[in-house]
Amino acid sequence: MADIIKLLPDHVANQIAAGEVVQRPASVVKELMENAIDAGATCIKLIVKDGGKTLIQVVDDGSGMSETDARLSFERHATSKISSAQDLFNLATKGFRGEALASIAAIAHVDMQTRTAANEVGTHLKIEGSKIVSQEVIATPEGTSISVKNLFFNIPARRNFLKSTQVELRHITDEFHRVALVHPNIEFHFYNNGSEIFNLPIGKHRQRIVHIFGSKMDNRLVPVSEETEVVKVSGFICKPEFAKKSRGEQFFFANNRYIKSPYLHHAVVAAFEGLIKSDTHPGYFLFLEVDPSSIDINIHPTKTEVKFDDENTLYAILRSTIKHSLGQFNVAPVLDFDH
Ligand code: ADP
Ligand code: MG
């Protein structure tokens, strides 16, 4: 029988990878904003139209790219962030897989304008379905602007699967919150259909939380702070009397990355035991710092699921730290459990 195995062409491989990296417009927002942060931006603008279905644009004032790098950035496994497998155990950047731009360009129309400080003119690239359709020299500010239109234009099933504009905008807003919360040292602007819905000046974590969730937050926050050999914990919990019926504001960040961890979530809930009704949820904004070699973030392309070396110890430290903060700030039970 004849040999039947063949290597898939790059544009097909990119489209397959895109299925994992890009689930919806919010995934594009996450990837583009993370790239802007990795590029050292001090100001990031997010511009969307119709819940990202018509337009997703991220403009940064970061390092920009040379003409060659601009083209290479859309290749699969093309990254400036790691060069060896060893680097995976010591990641300082959000990106490292070199997949996002290749994936996005495989399933959308992408327009990139970029310039480095060393170059007087910039590069303007248009890519549709992995193909460069035009490349020009352009006068553009230092930094990078990437627009993504017609997402899933060549995957009708995905395009049809998109939810209402309202729902997609909510997912985008969630991603925006996650990125903005962990980088209060970066200025963010978020425009939806031409109007500015967030304007976040540079500040501290507490101010950033208040800017995002409103001034009502200011007197709800109780600081959390602990440093052990295993982990440094900082951030805030919300006072028990502000626990909500809906899940509300619950954020974990590990090494400056938003993560989902049902196990650590449970540690927080356990610390609130007896202080809140069992059908309500505590609010928290918790920043964990661990040795980069003790955390594996390469479990899934979206990198929100992570694996800690010593989860049990983390659990115990988190629970006791939060209990301590609740006690120290005289947060006593205020609920009448008879009702
Ligand atoms: P990764 O972030 O994993 O490296 P991406 O596909 O997201 O992969 O980006 C590929 C490369 O393109 C990055 O490593 C970086 O060198 C470059 N790049 C992407 N976005 C930007 C940006 N906004 N500013 C400067 N360089 C960028
Ligand atoms: Mg990236």
UniProtKB/TrEMBL annotation:
Sequence ranges assigned to domain DNA mismatch repair protein S5 in this UniProt record: 209-327
Signal sequence bounds: none
Record-level Gene Ontology MF annotations: endonuclease activity
Keyword Heme: no
Keyword flag Cell division: no
Keywords carried by this UniProt record: DNA damage, DNA repair, Endonuclease, Hydrolase, Nuclease
Described function: This protein is involved in the repair of mismatches in DNA. It is required for dam-dependent methyl-directed DNA mismatch repair. May act as a 'molecular matchmaker', a protein that promotes the formation of a stable complex between two or more DNA-binding proteins in an ATP-dependent manner without itself being part of a final effector complex.
Family the UniProt entry places it in: Belongs to the DNA mismatch repair MutL/HexB family.
Annotated protein name in UniProt: DNA mismatch repair protein MutL
Gene behind the chain: mutL
